[in-house]
Amino acid sequence: MLHVKIFEKNEIYGKNVVNLLSDLHEKIFSPPGNITSDDIISAYIHPAATISKIAIYYDDRIPVGFMCMQRYEIEIDKKKLNVFRSQVGLLKDYRNKNIVKLTYLRFVISEMLRPPRKSLFFELCIHPSSYCSILKKGCNRNKAWPTKENAHQNRAMKDLCETLLNKFDLEIKKENGVLIHNDGLGPTRVEKKPKGEISSDAKFFIETNPGYVNGDGLAIILSLSVKDILVNIFHQTLSKINRKLIIRPAHGQEESPQEKPNEI
């Protein structure tokens, strides 16, 4: 069964955590040959963050993935905002697990309650599944940018996203009406082009960010409130319960193998 261990900020510089992150990155992503372990670690451990935590996921005692979580306090237009970021990597068989998203939602809501101020979530998505996960049921799409509905309309959110990219000193490429950044750490070690029918969100991601196969990340921002987080947690929990009911075998019958749903 998948379980998680959380490392606090004073622990994440320890040799154990650094080695775990470096080893997992090599297994999950396809880094270029000139990338060093120091390059990998600097992408995941952010000294400038006000709060940093790292979750390592285990199957029994074997590490199978990680999530790096940060909260920044950033001033924009003379107002201090909470900006949440995360970097996630999971081996293919462990992706799309509710435990991963719930770990982050718990982190965000606990941090939002400490300094109550406007909060934003900022992410660089390098695979359609990560983008679609952000916009799953329970997300207020009117508070997100870019989506298939507002990519060419919500100029204020686009400008805010670009401001954050500049605040984090990230080089920007402007393509297809969206903002792209490549951190140079390589794409995921998965099938680059999804097979079969895909969702409209996945289609939008691929059309606007075709360079994801080379590690290009689509910048996305989402305005957050405690209510938004609680609604999201409710939908995640309900989804988990529904899946358990669907795969439960009928009384007296053998459970038949279930076809894994299309993740995107």
Characteristic terms for this protein:
26% strand; 33% helix; 9-stranded mixed sheet; 9 strands; 264 residues; disordered C terminus; single chain; alpha+beta
Secondary structure layout plus pairing:
Layout: E1 2-7, H1 15-28, H2 37-44, E2 51-59, E3 62-76, E4 79-90, H3 98-112, E5 119-125, H4 128-134, E6 144-145, H5 155-167, E7 173-175, E8 178-182, H6 200-208, E9 216-224, H7 226-247
Parallel strand pairs: 4-5
Antiparallel strand pairs: 1-2, 2-3, 3-4, 5-9, 6-9, 7-8, 8-9
Describe the protein:
- With about 260 residues, the chain is an alpha+beta fold.
- The chain has helices at about 15-30, 35-45, 100-110, 130-135, 155-165, 200-210, 225-245, and strands at about 1-5, 50-60, 60-75, 80-90, 120-125, 145, 175, 180, 215-225.
- It is globular.
Shape: globular
The number of helical runs is 7
In percent, how much strand structure appears in the residues?
25-35%
Percent range of helical residues = 25-40%
Largest sheet: 9 strands, mixed
Class from helix and strand fractions? alpha+beta
Low-confidence stretches: 250-264
What Rg is obtained from the alpha carbons, in whole angstroms?
Answer: 18 Å
Q: Measure the end-to-end span.
A: 24 Å
The count of β-strands is 9
Can you write the helix and strand succession as a string?
A: EHHEEEHEHEHEEHEH
Overall average pLDDT: 85
